[in-house]
Amino acid sequence: MAKRTPMEVNAGSMADISFLLLIFFLVTTQIPNEKGLPILLPPKRTEMDNTVKMKQHNILSVLVNSRNELLVEREPLNVGDLQQTTIDFLENRGRDPKSSDSPEKAVVSIKTDRGTSYDTYLRVMDKVQAAYNTLRAKHMGIPLAAYLALDKEKASKAMKDKYEAAKKAYPLRISEAEQSSVGQ
Amino acid sequence: MLGKFKSPKEKEVPVISTASLPDIVLMLLFFFMVTAVMRETNLLVEQHLPSATQLTKLQDPSLVSHIYIGKPKDTQRFGHTELIQMNDVLVNPRQVPQLITQENQDVTRMTVSLKVDRQSKMGLVSDVKLKLREANARKINYSAVGQR
């Protein structure tokens, strides 16, 4: 019997086939890169609603009207200045009797109109959270960018403790009041 | 002397071997298969997300459901007012709690990602928020893009 040489398979078209597959995957998939502002809604309203009495000076009231204008503590304000105002309000610690007693007791109340644009609302939300995040990052002794990038599940034990402490010192208390409906 | 050196005219262009090309492309392919997820919804509403600075990453992608809000793309069929899209259908706010519980049994652990067009008004957004609160889906994430 003659010695048979194994047949060569031409693999030249393999590249084309894989390219086709690759392009198919590129078109049909998306890479998840979702980021956003997290909030926690208050629990469902129950019959036995025990209203908590808050002292008026512990509340920073932020009103946004249908023309996207801000009213903070009954005075008009630019959205850009809201972060500093919130930080001042939280860090007051009883110095000014009209401002908050301590960060633990302070509440930021945001009230929007049905006609407020979502963009403005998110800017307000962003500034208030920026104020909290800045203070928390300062409490933890890390830069703000590092605080935002912190992965709560993968962080080291020491970092987690620090984070919990900062969270306890500056609890995120944003309350959203019922809406008015002027400009829809 | 002449025998030792070839004349430059006879010099051949070396052939580049393409034998490893399939392997390279396959590696790319596998990389994409692992990192990417299938596109599951066709967007029926406009989506230009607002920008924000204090962004955090969504924790567990498998426990996230999306709600899209914006003006419809097909204005001939759906008009110009903002609408809510869940999965592949346009819904009204009253249907939101039912669809949310249908999608995931453990509502308290899941996150709802609200993808709202930047030109929307707060009215519809807060209607949805109220319904989510009713359905006990309290973890909300306002989807946004970073500032450049």
What would your notes on this structure say?
Chain A has 184 residues and is of the alpha/beta class. Chain A has a domain at 56-175. Chain A is built from 5 helices and 7 strands. Chain A has a 5-stranded mixed β-sheet, with helices on one face. In chain A, helix 2 (82-90) packs across helix 3 and helix 3 crosses helix 5 (157-169). Chain A is elongated. Chain A starts with 13 loop residues before the first helix and ends in an 8-residue tail after the last strand. Chain B is elongated, with a radius of gyration of 26 Å. Chain B is built from 4 helices and 9 strands; from the N terminus they run H-E-E-E-E-H-E-E-H-E-H-E-E. Chain B is an alpha/beta fold and 148 residues long. Chain B has helices at residues 21-35, 75-78, 96-103, 122-134, and strands at 37-38, 51-52, 56-57, 64-70, 83-86, 89-91, 111-116, 139-143, 145-146. The mean pLDDT of chain B is 83. Chain B starts with 20 loop residues before the first helix and ends with a strand. Chains A and B meet through helix 1, strand 1, strand 2 and helix 3 of A and helix 1, strand 1, strand 3, strand 7 and helix 4 of B.
CATH C-level name of the domain at 51-146 in chain B: Alpha Beta
Radius of gyration of chain B, rounded? 26 Å
Instruction: Please name the CATH architecture of the domain at 51-146 in chain B.
Output: 2-Layer Sandwich
Q: Tell me the span between the first and last alpha carbons of chain B.
A: 67 Å
* Helix/strand structural class of chain A: alpha/beta
> Which word captures the global form of chain A?
elongated
The radius of gyration computed from the alpha-carbon positions of chain A, rounded to a whole number of angstroms, is 27 Å
